[in-house]
Amino acid sequence: MPWHARLQLDYTAEQNARTVARYEHNGPLRILQSLYPEGDAICHNVLVHPPGGLVGGDTLDITTTVGPGAHGLVTTPGATRFYRSTGPLALQRSHLTLAEGARLEWLPLEALCYSACHAENHLTLNLAPGAECIAWDVTALGLPHAGQPFEQGRFTQHLEVPGLWLERGVIDAADDRLLSSPLGLAGHRCMASLFFAAGTPLDRTRRDAALDAARAVMEQHPKVKATAGATSPNDRMVVVRVLAPQVEPAMKLLKAVRVAWREVLWGLGGEAPRIWAM
Question: Which HAMAP family is this protein grouped with (predicted)?
Fold first, then answer.
């Protein structure tokens, strides 16, 4: 039987400037205890899916709202796994909504696409004026370390800030031109995007600072420097993209850029979620 799970996560800023997380769920999705390693203003949470993966027919619906002045950070304890399907779609939908002056860091670990999966990972972000978000999406095809290449299956990735930015791509294991061509993934099996999005246009100084910071970090990561790039597709976004043979070098780069962006864009330190050290 397919599993359908839903999570509603809401961040609010209390009168004492403490960000508080409240949630309700239906099915196997949970939020662990709220942590405050940076003080009361920033609430860290870990999103847990106890089954550990999705098969054909499974659906995860995650809705996150961040109230005015609140700052939430969401990550996961491990990868999201899209397993083999006999035909039905496995779907994960994440809908993020930020109110005026809100901040969110959306930092789930990678999505692993097993061979013969039929899956879609869908992220939509809505930003009110003054809201800002740092988010990433990391996708790995197959399990190269385990000798399990992505030989069959189909994966759709959808990243959207409505009216501002849309990236939607379909990866079919049979599409050798996409997977192997220098104009496609060039044999790489991990693709990752990190983006900073704002509800109000960024002035040129902040955009240039974000681009310069990202490019400086890339120079320090020789394993992916040649396959990474930073761009500003419009006046409300800065985007870093990277291809890598596996997850680890791509994730290492994204984590370092996140630290740099926190400093230059928000004046914050590089506190990492505690779960990443386990």
Answer: UreD
Give burial (CB, 10 Å; 0-12/13-18/19+) of 258.
buried
Q: Which of 226, 198, 228, 231 is nearest to 212 (CA)?
A: 231
CA–chain centroid gap for 177, Å, is 26
- In tens, the pLDDT along 156-184 reads 999 999 999 999 999 999 999 999 999 99
Tracing tokens 């409240």 back to the chain, one arrives at 22
Number of domains in the chain: 1
In this prediction the pTM is 0.97
Mean pLDDT throughout 123-149? 95
Q: Is there a contact between 9 and 31 (Cβ–Cβ < 8 Å)?
A: yes
Could you list the residue range(s) of the whole structural domain that residue 73 is in? Answer: 4-276
